[in-house]
Design goal:
The chain has one domain. About 40% of the residues are buried. The chain contains 7 helices and 13 strands. Strands 2, 4, 5, 8, 9, 10 and 12 form a 7-stranded antiparallel beta sheet that branches. Strands 1-13-3-11-7-6 form a 6-stranded antiparallel beta sheet. The protein is of the alpha+beta class. Strand 9 and strand 10 form a beta hairpin.
Length: about 280
């Protein structure tokens, strides 16, 4: 390998943030806290180990994902409740907020809408920060465990990975044929999962999640949402995933509705303002 004379100088060039977010509209967390104080629980669902469950949240409401029996990570998909083509865009969320998300940050929707779908209002693991390995919690870098990668690397047919769990759950919730539902399953928010990239090889790593029963992540629904949450077959992701080896536990999803009179003049985010002319 020929190393150029100015290699050190090239490496020393300072980075530039790709998407400065100072101009992003900021969530009014104080207002959301007021809404939450009056919100009424309207339902709950349990995502059983190695399975997924769906739920619906009205705009202006809240949903909470809680660890209830043991350390467990979950893979979250979100769609507009009335239009599956508007769905969570993990890549743009990552570009705007970083590799992991926490209180005050938002989950953004896909093109052409590109608007906030949900805002994180409470994160009981917010204390974790970034550890000495570069790991942190609630990532938007992993795609979801899936049967295709499992087959590619290990062979065999494993059906209870998160991709398949989410596919079955969405098909059941919408009445779509299984293969049609699969087309709507997308990259996830890895709830409670502790991940990062190795310094030497840049590989995606996972480690035991710090989540414990009673920990939760709560969101404000900026638009009407259909959600699906898979209780990952990796359990706390300390060893393996896409297998039946890890100890797995359920995850609880609770839904809360804010009374209309308490929302006052609050309105959900408008569609993205780009005119979609694309230079024509």
């Amino acid at each position: 390998m020929n190393i150029p004379d100015d290699a050190a100088a090239r490496r020393a060039v300072k980075p530039v943030i790709c998407y400065p977010v100072e101009t992003l509209p900021q969530p009014d967390l104080a207002a959301y806290a007021g809404f939450r104080a009056h919100a009424i629980k309207t339902g709950e669902v349990l995502a059983h180990p190695r399975e997924a469950a769906t739920f619906r949240v009205p705009a202006g409401g809240f949903f909470r994902i809680t660890s209830v029996e043991g350390p467990q990570v979950g893979d979250l998909n979100l769609w507009h409740a009335d239009d599956l083509s508007e769905r969570f865009y993990s890549g743009k969320t990552r570009a705007l907020h970083g590799t992991h998300v926490t209180t005050g940050q938002r989950l953004w929707s896909s093109f052409p809408t590109l608007r906030p779908m949900a805002t994180i209002t409470t994160d009981t693991l917010g204390w974790y920060g970034k550890d000495d390995f570069g790991g942190s919690v609630h990532d938007v870098i992993g795609t979801r465990c899936d049967p295709y990668t499992h087959n590619l690397l290990s062979g065999g047919q494993y059906h209870h990975c998160c991709h398949s769990n989410l596919t079955r759950a969405l098909a059941d919730a919408t009445g779509l044929p299984l293969h049609d539902a699969e087309a709507h399953v997308h990259d996830v928010l890895n709830v409670f999962m502790c991940t990062g990239f190795t310094r030497d090889t840049g590989q995606y790593f996972m480690k035991a999640s710090p989540v414990r029963p009673g920990d939760y992540l709560e969101f404000f629904a900026e638009i009407p949402l259909l959600g699906a949450l898979s209780a990952c077959p990796g359990g706390d992701c300390s060893t393996v995933h896409s297998s039946d080896q890890a100890a797995c536990y359920p995850l609880l999803v609770e839904v809360f509705e804010t009374p209309a009179d308490m929302l006052g003049d609050w309105q959900g985010p408008a569609l993205n303002g780009y005119d979609r002319s694309h230079g024509r």
